[in-house]
Design brief:
12 helices; membrane; transmembrane helix
Length: 261
């Protein structure tokens, strides 16, 4: 067994029991302190389901990842599935109507050019073992800020509907009036990524850095890869937030009246 393998968590009954305890603890804390937005949301149940789904999905990925990283068709299919799931997840979090699929725009707007630039410059080879984790990190980051920015913007527009109407009465276009309300709150979605980049190495050692060290890379190489991931993530997330706010300001992405109320 290599040093990197010995450094990882052992896959045994003890790990399974500990994961179960942590999952129950998370759900229990949320239930006890009523950390749900309203009575219709069952966050403890969502946490348990999320944990079970994560286990099932990671087990499935572990079975198919070998095929995906060694076969070009498998690589393409894997990336399409990742993107599709991200779009569906973001869309479901923002609205229940037909406009949910438009979340594909903010997620793709930053991820596609970044991945394309990596491939065209030769910095990343067309190999699943490299392309899948990098694409996954970028898609996941775009998904997170799309949801955060979209929810904040839609909530704020509903809460301050009168201000939008007042701005329009003063001569603002509908898009501009909505943008003035949505843009400031949506920008908060960038804060987690910004804080992570500011404190990297001081507060946290992110996954890409640790993973490369465990894989035998030098600290310098691991640091360079992590630096790229963090800066690329900030670019992808900035684009995702900008596109999300634009779609909402132009009423392309919206909630049904009953849902917004």
């Amino acid at each position: 067994m290599t040093l990197s393998a010995r450094s990882l968590l052992p896959v045994n009954l003890t790990l399974g029991v500990l994961l179960g305890v942590l999952l129950v603890a998370a759900a229990g804390v949320v239930y006890w302190f009523r950390l749900s937005p309203d009575s219709s949301a069952d966050r403890p149940r969502e946490i348990v389901i999320a944990g079970v789904r994560a286990a099932a999905q990671l087990a499935t990925v572990s079975l198919v990842i070998t095929w995906a990283v060694t076969n070009l068709a498998g690589l393409a299919a894997f990336l399409v599935v990742m993107f599709g799931v991200a779009v569906r997840t973001a869309g479901r979090r923002l609205t229940s109507n037909h406009t949910w699929w438009l979340t594909a725009a903010p997620i793709a707007a930053g991820v596609v050019p970044t991945v394309a630039a990596l491939l065209l410059t030769g910095l990343v080879p067309v190999k699943g073992l490299v392309l899948i984790p990098i694409s996954g990190i970028l898609i996941g980051g775009a998904l997170t800020v799309t949801v955060l920015a979209g929810r904040r913007a839609l909530d704020e527009l509903e809460l301050r509907r009168g201000e939008v109407e007042a701005a329009m009465a003063l001569g603002f276009l509908d898009r501009d009036a909505r943008m003035e309300i949505a843009r400031p709150v949506a920008s908060d979605a960038l804060l987690p990524g910004l804080d992570q980049t500011r404190t990297v190495g001081l507060v946290t050692l992110p996954g890409a850095f640790v993973g490369m060290l465990l894989g035998g890379a030098s600290p310098m190489m691991a640091g360079a890869v992590q630096l790229f991931v963090l800066i690329a993530l900030m670019a992808v997330q900035a684009i995702a937030v900008a596109v999300t706010v634009e779609l909402i300001a132009r009423r392309r992405l919206f909630r049904p009246v009953a849902q917004a109320a």
